Amino acid sequence: MIESIPLQSATGLFDGGFKLIPALTLATMLALFLGVGWFFRVASVDDMWVAGRSIGSIENGMAIAANWMSVAAYLGVASLVAFLGYFGLAYVVGWTTGYFILLIFMAAQFRRFGKYTAPDFVGDRYYSDLGRAIAATTTLLIAFVYIIAQGNGLGLMAQYIFGVSYEVGVVLLMTITIGYVALSGMLGTTKNMTLQYVILIGAFLLGLYATGWTQGWSTVLPFIEYGEQSTEIATEIDRQFTEPFADAGYYHWIALCVSLIAGTCGLPHVLVRFYTADNERNARWGTVWGLFFTLLLFLGTTAYAAYGTLLYQENVGEYTEMTGTESDTLVVLTAHLAELPDWLVGIVAAGAVAAGLATTAGLFISASSAAAHDIYTNLYKEDASQREQMIVGRLTILGLGAVVTYLALNPPALIAEVVGMSFALAGTVLFPVFFLGLWWEDATREGAIAGMFVGLFFGFGSIVNEVLPQYVGAISGDAIVPAFAMVVPATSSSLVGVPAVMLTIIVVSMFTEDPPEDVKRLVRQCHSPKPMEKMDSAEDVATDGGTPADD
């Protein structure tokens, strides 16, 4: 069951006060991000939402990796593997496998569709304002849940580097992020994400190599040299490191994997990266590069888990008694317990900040575009000027930022668990309508709307079922409906939800009127082998006068 995080540490990680060199490193990094945001500040919606469709494959790959590799991936996955052993690998397997589905079935097709946002796809593909509204609202919910986890990680790192309280750290780094995203839009954010990836992967690998070298555990390839440490943990400390499902069942492992796979394919802030590519070929290659850049980090998280577990056991006590704070900072804690210099530990912590800022920026962009483009412009005021759209988008960033900053002060779960909830929500509600919308031209408006409502029941309902009791004293127990939480966990709702949503879409579509012919042509054009130009979209080629039906 999900538990709140106690904000204290018995390791001395947060007892060193202000650290000059790490603080200067982080301050320089943040100033650089703000400078990039100012230099690439935007004045048009093309640049604000899709970076002018000007991003090449390698740059987009770095942005995809940085956008997606949040504080949860940088800090949280290692702690989950440490605590859950083999079961924790579900996070690595699920998040990585999702990229293959994106690469094969969605990247190029989404780019050919050629819109601004993920809700744009739902609204136009399913010729429905209501569908667009549900997708936009879900996008806001996903960003809302996801950013809470990022604020948590950012606060912990600011606490370590600056010696301030956790609460001050959350407010400080979230304020900086909100400022540069509101200023720079997608263009500046993409440039920053490329830079942030270089920083975060450099810091992550520096800490990993330095820990392995100083402890005599690894030399050239720590990714594959930690077998002896894992064996020691399994034989002397905890068997679950090498014994599959020692302390957890098959069902929940599979459910978690499926939710993370589907969630990767349904996250709006990941899918919008395809719209920024200059053509569909680079959308595919951007996904390939993104997978490669992601694996550089993920292959190291398990090594960090082994190293951190042994160091904690040797220097502090039973690792299973770690506080939530220690667990959520295991990567930085490993470098600290290895007695690396403060400046080096600070660089590892700065890498976590870069990871958090990159993902938070992408989430803010997807949320602001959903509010300004999909809700305000498409549903409320169709003749809204570019200036109005950008004002609404920036106000959304400010408003959402204030709310999630407040909630991050008292996060509902471990970082990776909160992120898992947002992935499950994206996978359950949005992935089925995206996938069927691209690959089945007979999917109808009514089917998609019914499916998304079913997805919200499973995806958002499971989150409310488990999280609400923590904030409402009148509700006793770990979940409002314990039986529902067992079958449909908040972090793993897609195993039940995705088949239910897909079945709903298919059945309802079979009993409702076929989509308009121009919509069917649009779907076919998304699969055309003909190369497209930078600003081309399937709609430019396929639509020839058909009139979509009204809601």
From TrEMBL:
Residues 528-551 are annotated as: Disordered. It is found in: Membrane. The chain crosses the membrane at residues 20-40, 61-83, 89-110, 130-149, 161-183, 195-213, 250-275, 287-307, 343-370, 391-409, 421-440, 447-464, 484-511. It holds the Pfam family SSF. GO terms for cellular component: plasma membrane. Keywords: Membrane, Transmembrane, Transmembrane helix, Transport. It comes from the Archaea. It is a multi-pass membrane protein. InterPro entries: Na/Glc_symporter_sf, Na/solute_symporter, Sodium:Solute_Symporter. The keyword Magnesium does not apply. Gene3D superfamilies: Sodium/glucose cotransporter. This is Cation/acetate symporter. It comes from Natronorubrum thiooxidans.
